[in-house]
Write a structure and sequence with these properties.
It is built from 16 helices and 32 strands. By secondary structure, it is an alpha+beta fold. The relative contact order is 0.11. This is Alkaline phosphatase D.
């Protein structure tokens, strides 16, 4: 196949090689050879002088390695033809010390939406560079980037931020104004860079006036009235729109980004080429839609990956990859959507996402997972997030890394997030009983234990659980509580009995690693058995801040829990919070109305978040920090002896405006000491 045609249709990542000499002040870095993607037989022709060109999405860089970087831009002006673009690189922002480049003029092709993805190799390690693009007489914004340290280099400190979930349609993007002020080496983006839906229920609420309502050129209207991206034109529209925001442009121009996708770059809670908007939706592959999503991400992200359009399947791109930052750190970025199997409990089995992906009975999930595995604990193929090939690659990367810290760009949380419905309801009933009979406060612990036993023994064959509260009655009689008082208490508690289904142990979200428990245990066993230390996951997705230890097995007795690594989870940049989702569930689903007090309380119109306390109550052995109602980002400072992570929580909207700078409302510092897979919570800043 012709080389230029291969570049055009197979990968479209063009390459320049930096030479060792400087171009000099005012010098040229043009090359007279045949450029990648240019016309055959000579130098790339100049841009059409009668057309006004622009760079409406700015510039970006990504995937920093010791000797290379990927540069990105997009050109508008000539919609029909290839546009020759010149790239320049320098050691200074004024471009007085330019770097000589081969193949420095490339074509922005209409087949790739006139985007440019240009890799420059043979660069100096640990070096700051400046870059820009020129079309005709139009010059782009100047971008700043930095290569990674040499693999054998000693690095005193590495500083980076990790972010995710930047929904255009809700809240604000003041986070980017704050991030550009940080002193960072790079940004890790954990996905949900764009949201494929417009007008979905989870996108309800006020949005800053700077973000107008998006319109998709094609789009499909779902049962809930939301429109979701369907075609390549739709997905391109999303990226063009998101990248039009000057704050996001400034972030890209300031720091190189290492990005991975999560679900919303294709479809909410997706797996492979399957969507999950409605019950039964995921039984039909959406291959063309998935391929469109793949291509748009590929076109707009400065990632050192290839796309094979000649491959007719949805699996035509590999975005999992690894990075190294001197002796200090390695970083693996995994793809947790393209290879994952269906959720262990199918939506068609339950009839709703509640019970199949959220609020899932733990025992039912364990049974279904074991059944799918055929009773073989090593048969992870049917119950996997990573897929067999990527999991084996992950294990090799972890085992072979000689860096002090092994960082993992991990889209969905590894932490167990569970609620024991029986204990939770018993706790709420105890509070109600003591409000009715304050004189019994001295028996609070015994009352709670008795109620736990009564609810455990309750008849759950009917819609509402039934019990005569024998254990509680015996306790109160033994404490010489008058019979009339006992009768009143039992009557009041009987009226509060919840739906039977609530008296269960629940996993809150099995779209994350809780839903793929066998694979998680397998991977943690690999780390433990090979003595691999200092593994820290950088996680997004769940729209909340969390921090804690990942256990070898969460289902063993408390005394046998064994921490293996750490999971640090950042809140979304702008997406509605984890708290808001569960508040909506208990407000709108009658089966879970009795659990409302576990999520929030309300007095005189003021809502108080109780969800944080609920999660801490049932997950305290591993979860050390939780803020479920937040937007923000995380900044990491890494040294040989310690990882320090600061969760930066943003202020809310001011009417329909982003909050004025400084937009950070509070900061929480967490530390991880080398050799210790536990998190220490430092007093809030």
């Amino acid at each position: 196949m012709d080389r230029r045609k291969f570049l055009k249709w197979g990968s479209f990542l063009t390459v320049s090689v930096a030479t060792t000499s400087l171009a000099g002040c005012g010098g040229s870095n043009d090359d007279d050879g045949n450029e990648s993607g240019g016309e055959s037989g000579g130098q790339t022709p100049p841009a059409n002088g009668s057309i006004t060109y622009s760079f409406p999405q700015g510039v970006a860089s990504g995937d920093p390695r010791p000797d290379s970087i990927v540069l990105w831009t997009r050109i508008e002006g000539d919609a029909e033809n290839a546009v020759p673009v010149k790239v320049e690189l320098a050691y200074d922002e004024a471009f007085t010390q330019k770097v000589n480049l081969t193949d420095a003029t490339i074509n922005a092709e209409p087949d790739w939406d006139h985007t440019v993805r240009h890799k420059i190799t043979n660069l100096l390690a640990g070096t700051t560079y400046y870059y820009r693009f020129t079309v005709g007489g139009t010059v782009s914004t100047v971008g700043r980037t930095r290569t990674a340290p040499a693999e054998a280099a000693s690095v005193d400190e590495l500083r980076f931020a990790f972010i995710s979930c930047q929904d255009w349609s809700v809240n604000h993007w003041a986070a980017f104004d704050e991030l550009v002020k940080e002193d960072l080496d790079f940004i890790v983006h954990l996905g949900d860079y764009v949201y494929e839906t417009v007008g979905a229920d989870f996108q309800s609420g006020v949005v800053e006036s700077a973000h107008g309502k998006l319109t998709l050129p094609d789009g499909t209207v779902g049962a809930d009235g939301a429109t979701y991206a369907t075609t390549l034109a739709d997905y391109r529209t999303l990226y063009r729109s998101y990248r039009s925001d000057p704050r996001l442009q400034a972030l890209h121009a300031r720091f190189p980004m290492i990005a991975i996708w999560d679900d919303h770059e294709f479809s909410d809670d997706c797996w492979q080429d399957h969507q999950t908007y409605e019950v039964g939706d995921d039984e039909t592959p959406r291959t063309a839609r998935r391929r469109s999503a793949n291509q748009a991400w590929f076109e707009f992200m400065p990632a050192d990956v290839s796309l094979d359009l000649s491959n007719p399947s949805f699996n035509n791109i590999q975005i999992y990859r690894a990075f190294r930052f001197g002796k200090l750190a390695s970083l693996v970025m995994t793809d947790q959507r393209l290879y994952r199997t269906d959720h262990v409990i199918a939506e068609t089995e339950i009839g709703s996402e509640i019970g199949s992906r959220y609020f899932v009975p733990k025992a039912l999930l364990a049974f279904e997972e074991t059944t799918k595995m055929g009773g073989d604990p090593d048969n992870l193929t049917p119950v996997s997030i990573l897929g067999d090939t990527q999991r084996a690659w992950w294990k090799r990367q972890m085992q072979n890394s000689t860096a002090t810290w092994k960082l993992w760009g991990n889209e969905v949380s590894l932490l167990r997030m569970q609620v024991d419905g029986t204990r939770a309801v018993a706790g709420l009933m105890t509070q109600g009983l003591l409000a009715l009979a304050p004189s019994l406060a001295g028996l609070a612990s015994q009352i709670n234990d008795a109620l736990v036993q009564d609810l455990t023994d309750a008849d759950k064959s009917e819609t509402v659980a039934q019990t005569s509260f024998d254990n509680l009655t015996a306790l109160l009689q033994g404490a010489s509580v008058p019979s009339a008082t006992i009768t009143t208490i039992v009557g009041a508690l009987t009226a509060q009995l919840p739906p039977s289904m609530l008296l269960n142990e629940y996993l809150l979200n099995v779209d994350q690693w809780d839903g793929f428990n066998a694979e998680r245990k397998n991977m943690m066993a690999h780390l433990r058995d090979h003595g691999i230390q200092n593994v820290v996951a950088l996680t997004g997705d769940i729209h909340a801040f969390f921090a804690g230890s990942v256990m070898a097995d969460y289902d063993v007795a408390t005394a046998d829990l064994e921490p293996v690594m750490v999971d640090l989870v950042t809140a979304g940049v702008s997406s509605n919070s984890f708290f808001s989702y569960f508040k909506n569930v208990v407000d709108t689903n009658p089966a879970f109305a009795a659990a409302r007090a576990l999520i929030y309380s309300e007095s005189a119109g003021v809502i108080t978040n109780t969800f944080n306390d609920t999660l801490n109550l049932f997950n305290s052995n591993w979860m050390k920090y939780a803020d479920t109602n937040a937007q923000g980002y995380a900044v990491v400072s890494l040294t040989e002896s310690q990882l320090s992570c600061t969760f930066k929580k943003l202020k809310p909207l001011d009417g329909d405006q982003a909050p004025a700078s400084p937009a950070v409302a509070s900061q929480q510092v967490l530390t991880v000491a080398a050799g210790d897979p536990n998190v220490s919570v430092v007093l809030p800043v």
